[in-house]
Amino acid sequence: MMDTEKFIEESIQNIKDEVKDEKVIIALSGGVDSSVASALASEAIGKQLEAIFVDHGLLRKDEAKEVEETFKDKLNFKLVDAADEFVEALAGITDPEKKREIIGHKFIEVFEREAKKSGAKYLLQGTIAPDWIESEGNIKSHHNLTLPDGLVLEIIEPLRELYKDEVREVGTQLGLPDKIVHRQPFPGPGLAVRVLGEVTKEKLDICREANAILNEFVEKEELDKDLWQYFVVLTNSKVTGVKGDQRDFGYLVVIRMVQSFDAMTANVPDLPWEFLHNVSQEITAKVPQITHVSLSLSNKPPSTIEFE
Ligand code: XMP
User: Fold this and answer.
1) Predicted confidence band at 54 (pLDDT cuts at 50, 70, 90)?
2) Atom 9 of ligand 1: nearest residue by CA position
3) N or C: less crowded end of the chain, CB within 10 Å?
């Protein structure tokens, strides 16, 4: 068992000793690891840390607002709205790996732009033990990030030796809300891999609305404790529905709810039918562009958790 208080105390001292009076930046995603790393470093060096949160327009409903609310008084927090830039870069792209590549490059471009403005010497990262153990073995790497104009950012990884449950303990001890500390994993490319086929602003908005309804029902029924991830996928298929006495042509969405320990395998648990019916009805009632809701029953393997 880790002594959380001792870990926090020592980490704060180490960060202070290393950084001295230099500036540090972090790409804060609002996920557990980068949030805890930010909170920890902020305890150590306060305003010398700049936490940059990039809204790439592929976030869930109200996510940017929630992350901003959580951190704006705790950290030197900067929200960068790059939504239009990302959605434009994705226009016409349907291949999932191509989407990932474009989003990854765009993210680096936006972040580098911000890094240059900040004058930072260090880049803080929320790397945790499982991120490097398998690929690197037990050797501590000294890697730095060199930006295209030759600016070298030295990397600090205060959570490097921790596992997820320990990171959560540190986050709780530092006063981060449960909503952040126990957040379900959300892929870096965000809704771009849950909006199948071409990503457009309209499709993102439809996916966001339906997902928010599922989220609300899951939280109300407290099903989230037993689930690894739960979300709505907007398929690229339009199917016929009926509104009043008119035939209608709208989107088919899929509800995906899985249990897992490490995302390597996943299974679809028994889910209460009443809950599923209620979610389905609410989605078609509140999101008029959707005419059909279905449920994914496939485990991983053979399926993956995400649809793209
Ligand atoms: P799959 O779909 O491969 O997903 O079963 C396993 C876990 O990884 C997440 N995931 C991603 N995370 N960038 C990420 O940061 C990605 O491109 C990506 N693709 C999938 C997924 O949400 C699940 O938790």
Assistant:
1) very high
2) 187
3) N
pLDDT tens-digit map of 91-113: 999 999 999 999 999 999 999 89
Residue 93 DSSP class: -
pLDDT at 191 over 70: yes
Domains of the chain (ranges; CATH) run: 4-181 (3.40.50.620), 194-295 (3.30.300.10)
pTM (two decimals): 0.92
Cβ-based burial of 16 (10 A; exposed 0-12, middle 13-18, buried ≥19): middle
pLDDT above 70 coverage of the chain, percent? 97
- Which residue, judged by its Cα, is nearest atom 18 of ligand 1? 187
Q: Is 94 left (phi over 0), alpha (psi -120 to 50) or beta?
A: alpha
For residue 96, the CA-to-ligand 1 centroid distance in Å is 12
Å from CA of 190 to ligand 1 middle: 9
130 lines ligand 1 (CB under 6 A): no
Query: Any idea what the Cα angle at residue 171 is, between residues 165 and 174, rounded to 5°?
Result: 145
Distance 58 CA to ligand 1 centre (A): 15
Q: Report pLDDT for 134.
A: 66
